[in-house]
Amino acid sequence: xxxxxxxxxxxxxxxxxxxxxxxxxxxxxxTPAMPETVAGVAxxxxxxxxVPDSFxxxxxxxxxxxxxxxPQMMGTIVAVMVTEGSHVTAGQVLARxxxxxxxxxxxxxxxxxxxxxHEVGAAESAYALAASTxxxxxxxxxxxxxxxxxxxxVRQQLQTAAARRDVAKANEAQAKAAVSQAAIGASYTxxxxxxxxxxAQRNVDPGALASPGIPLFxxxxxxxxxxxxxxxxxxxxxxxLGQSVPxxxxxxxxxxxxxxxxxxxxxxxxxxxxFTVKIELPQNAALRSGLFGHASLVRGQRTxxxxxxxxxxxxxxxxxxxxxxxxxxxxxxYVTLGNQFGNRVEVLSGLxxxxxxxVSPDGRELGGKRVEVQG
Length: 375
Prior knowledge:
The protein has four domains: 41-51 and 303-373, conserved putative lor/sdh protein from methanococcus maripaludis s2 fold (Beta Barrel); 55-63 and 223-299, Efflux pump adaptor protein, beta barrel domain (Elongation Factor Tu (Ef-tu), domain 3, Beta Barrel); 68-98 and 193-219, CATH 2.40.50.100; 100-187, Helix Hairpins (Orthogonal Bundle), CATH 1.10.287.470. The chain has helices at 100-142, 148-187; strands spanning 14-17, 20-23, 37-41, 43-45, 48-63, 66-69, 75-80, 87-88, 93-97, 190-192, 197-202, 209-210, 217-220, 225-232, 244-249, 256-264, 274-281, 292-308, 313-315, 318-324, 330-341, 344-349, 356-358, 370-373. With 375 residues, it is of the alpha+beta class. It has two helices and 24 strands. The strands form five sheets. It has a six-stranded antiparallel barrel with strand order 5-14-17-16-15-18. A hairpin with a 5-residue loop joins strand 20 (318-324) and strand 21 (330-341).
């Protein structure tokens, strides 16, 4: 059952109540609340600016010097001195191969050299004797004291001694070369670092059989790094050697690096229709091979809506700005952002030219509030 609720609206009538008559003459009218006002807010008009027409090229950080270290002889690995992450210096021994066989070859070559040296000594003595005899026979021959046959025989002995001496010296030189070769072979039992760096990969353990050409270690220099990016065939024409390129490495947040183009591969990838470009990076202790990075490369110039970074309000992955209308009321509006240029950011959508926005909300909640312009 409905109840009749009487509201005492007064239209100049008298209502009977207990104890007499009461008259009403005023109306109960609701007054709308005025919006809150925020003072000292700086505004700016949205306009366009000329900015570089840039595009992003992504790639991977690589060490400027990388070496696959493989043995130069076959043998059994008897010791490994490093592991992944070890810092090594140029010439440091990384692993050793069993030296028994090359050492035996070296000792044999040294013994042959010793024999050759003794042979040279004997040949030198024989030659000296033959030369002295020849000098005496020269005097006798001039005095007609010896026959021509005796003189010829002595001269033949001198030539034979000279030939023996030359052969002995040649054998000595060959023996020395054999010793040098055997010494080099013996040195191959020690696998050394060709330059200073860090061991990025280790593929061997003691007891394994080392074979020439099969890498045991991957060594990377920590002195210099470059970023290898892939550039579309339509954009590679805008890149020049020596060009300065801003680079950002995701693992090194907040630090933009000044890179330089040092190489453009002349041949492109037929499957992706792209070209590899190497960008030299400045020294940075945080750089490592394999890090992801991207470079900003410029095609030319274009116009775009630019606003200060301070005007952007972030809610998670969403970006918005406060737009102020003609009634001075601020409304939150979501926008799509583009590239950053210093302390300004490009707005791709969400704003129109000549609209007014709040320059720096400074964390204040201004939605639906009236703003008073600073100054």
